[in-house]
Amino acid sequence: MSLRQRLLLLMSLTVAAAVAAVAWTVLVRIRHVFEERDEQETTLFVSQFEREFQNRSAQVAAAVDRLAAGDRAHSIALQMSLSGDASPYVTEAQSLAADAQLDFLEIVGPDGNIVSSAQWPARFGYPEPAVTPGRPSAFLKREDLHNGASALGLFAVRTIRGAESAVRLVGGERVDQRFLSDLPVAPGLQVALYSDNSAGAESLLKSAVFDAKQLVGSNGDMHEAGRYQALIASALTTDQQQNAIVSIGNRGEDSVNATAIPLKNETGQVLAVLLVTISREGMVEAERHIRAIAYGVASGGILLAIAFSFWIAARVSRPIEQLAHAAEEVASGNWDAHVPEHGHDEVSVLARSFNHMTEQLAAQREQLLQSERVAAWRELARRLAHELKNPLFPLQITVENLIRARALPETEFDEVFRESTATLGMEIANLKTIIGRFSDFSKMPKPELERIEACDVVERVRSLYEGATSRDAKIEFAMKVSREPMPLMADPELLHRALSNLVLNAMDAMPQGGRLTLAAEPHGDKIQIEVQDTGEGLTPKECERLFTPYYTSKQHGTGLGLAIVQSIVADHGGTIAVESRAGGGATFMITLPKATA
């Protein structure tokens, strides 16, 4: 991954992470604020409900008090005490309830049995449990009705004074949809009441099955009432107020914060559950709006990061890429590589330092080349002097012998003269050979490049030397040439000369015979040609100095053959190397660039 791509990725991730962190923080805060608001509104409504409940309780108690203190109730109680007959008053409860605007009213005689019932006239003579001592002034009670159902009501019990025996009035008001509709409800808030209206269901815990029809709101039946089942069941089983988020539909806006509040009688039995719901539509829309803003900001930030990365690329990454390219050129041998310098920042300082370094390298390279040239010519002069000294010493001895032989008789002088002139001729020829080879080495011609096939060069060398050695049948030639095209841009004569030199050296390394292998195969954009023998091999020290001019391991060699081979290979832009071990033969490997199409 390039520097530009890394910068783009880093900036994009940074912007996205920052926007995500801010958006998450805002969302959490908004959710917390909405939850606090919903909790406050629920608490406020519960307080209002309690106050309304107390107010309604006081109203019911006052209405029953007024009836108990009225002349009509006093007359009924007095007549019942005097006559002991309650049958004339069976229908009195209905008229009294209508006058007091009560939903429920019963007249209970001294024996605790119902004398008259406004809500269920047929209950005449039934006992009324509500008149037991210890009842509060107002209380919740589930009242059985004549149609087999029941109703939840707010009741009060009062004794009619002025009679010898206690005659009591039990009056009440329904706690139902009408009761809920009279409650002050804030916008977005909805209340409902869940109660089991089956006959005799004194406690909701007795009902094992949730009936969605029994959940009634202030505006009628609750939409998707079954979704509140788990919350209501939890409030019933724990006997405590419960809160939960309830999804009414498939959209987030349809969810509500719901609170279930158990309503109990004076003994602690749960008679109903008050359900308070607050819509979460505002919070969900706010969260969605914030997410949309976050996505927009993140997208814009990423676009800015892309633009900023391109700007940084122009100011930072592009100069660094230029530096990298220049460094590659220096590594490939172009020490004149130069990078442009702009500004005074760190990258510009680095560019100036690089240019200064390449200038110093070029100067040091020139000094090194000069030193190497001087050292090479000194080494050549030393070796040439050494090579010339060997034949000069026999020449000097021969001349001295001729001078001394001049005083000998003519016959003896003639014999010495013939031997001496023969020696002089041989040594002078040797001197000419040495000087001629040195002249050849110093006057290597430049290669005349043309497109050739490596396999043709190898085959030409094989055909030349295999025939010359087949008479002795000591050296076996082997070929390992790839069938793939191996084009070269080379001088065929110079390359033939180099390979011939290697083949002759390999044959000299196997005086007792052996196997000589010629190989050629492509390696990517290179072509490798090998000359391998099974001779005595070379030591590591010999391998290091093998291509040095005038170094030879042969008894009568000049030490210029492999130096000439290396020069030819270098002129073709290739390299030559040797692999060998003592007693294991040697392999010379020439690597040349493949010709381009």
Could you please describe the fold and organization of this structure?
This protein has helices at residues 3-69, 71-83, 92-100, 177-181, 229-238, 281-332, 346-405, 410-442, 454-469, 492-508, 540-545, 561-571; strands at 104-108, 114-117, 139-144, 150-160, 167-174, 189-194, 215-217, 220-221, 242-247, 255-264, 270-279, 450-453, 475-481, 487-490, 514-523, 526-533, 575-580, 586-593. With 597 residues, it is an alpha+beta fold. Among the domains are: 70-175, PAS domain (Beta-Lactamase), CATH 3.30.450.20; 347-442, no CATH class; 450-593, Histidine kinase-like ATPase, C-terminal domain (Heat Shock Protein 90, 2-Layer Sandwich). The strands form 4 sheets. The chain has a 6-stranded antiparallel sheet, with helices on both faces. Strands 2-1-5-4-3 form a 5-stranded antiparallel sheet. It has a 5-stranded mixed sheet with strand order 13-15-16-18-17. Helix 6 packs parallel to helix 7. It starts with a helix and ends with a strand.
Alpha carbon gyration radius: 60 Å
So what's the CATH class of the domain at 450-593?
Alpha Beta
Give the end-to-end Cα distance, rounded to a whole number of Å.
Answer: 32 Å
Low-confidence blocks of residues: none
State which percent range the strand residues make up: 15-25%
Instruction: Report the biggest beta sheet as strand number plus sense, adding barrel if it closes.
Output: 6 strands, antiparallel
